[in-house]
Design goal:
mainly alpha; three-stranded antiparallel beta sheet; 12 helices; 3 strands; globular
Length: 230
């Protein structure tokens, strides 16, 4: 039962349990958003989410606040909690920041990647070329890039890149289809890997910059077509 003064009477154990429940609800919703099961612009109703997860509305509100801080949902005074749909300006700014951060990450990663890392990266690209499952492709794509960020040995830098990536993930499932179907994404990934194999920092930075440039163009084109259709 929720009441206005329930927080004042909570024991430390109760507060911890509620926090854990809120984290579980947030994790469940986060996965659904990132996999596009909850599409951008859709509304999250507090009571329905609470019933679906079998919890009270208090941890649901806390989960909403956590997801809002991550940029995955937004509070609309007239409509409640909505799955974030980024504006074109927001997408452009996000990828400008990512370009700078990933340029730094690849510079540190190129000489730090081990032969085992390079073998696994090549295996991932091979698997991506043969999967027809869009969700699986995106998961492997994220793993490919994250392995490179991790090798940079800069955990704060890696965290910033991943947060920016996840803030845009909800609509990317639909937006990337053209790049995957044309083979462009595959070619660009292989150019990044080739530069890493030869330990060519400048070539790796160029390949990453081109990849991000094409990704933001694709995302903006997708949002523009959505805006025109609405």
């Amino acid at each position: 039962m929720d009441s206005s003064n329930s927080h004042h009477n909570d024991s430390p154990g109760t507060t911890l349990r509620r926090t854990n429940v809120a984290q579980e609800v947030a994790a469940g919703l986060r996965e659904e958003i990132l996999r596009a099961r909850l599409p951008p612009g859709s509304r999250l109703r507090q009571e329905q989410i609470a019933a679906r997860f079998g919890v009270s509305t208090t941890p649901v509100r806390e989960a909403f606040r956590a997801l809002e801080a991550e940029g995955l949902v937004r509070l609309d005074p007239g409509k409640g909690v909505l799955i974030s749909r980024p504006s074109i300006d927001s997408v452009r700014e996000t990828y400008e920041i990512r370009a700078a951060l990933e340029n730094l990450a690849i510079r540190h990663a190129v000489r730090a990647l081990t032969e085992d890392d390079l073998t696994e990266l090549a295996w991932l690209l091979e698997e991506m070329d043969h999967t027809e499952d869009a969700v699986r492709w995106i998961e492997m794509n994220n793993t490919f890039h994250d392995m490179i960020y991790a090798a940079a040995g800069r955990p704060k830098l890696r965290g910033m890149i991943l947060n920016l990536r996840d803030s845009m993930a909800g609509y990317m499932h639909s937006a990337i289809q053209g790049a995957v179907a044309s083979g462009r994404a595959s070619r660009e990934h292989k150019e990044i890997l080739t530069a890493c194999r030869t330990r060519d920092v400048e070539a790796a930075q160029r390949a990453v910059a081109i990849h991000i440039h094409h990704t933001v163009d694709m995302a903006i084109d997708y949002l523009s077509r959505e805006d025109a259709a609405s």
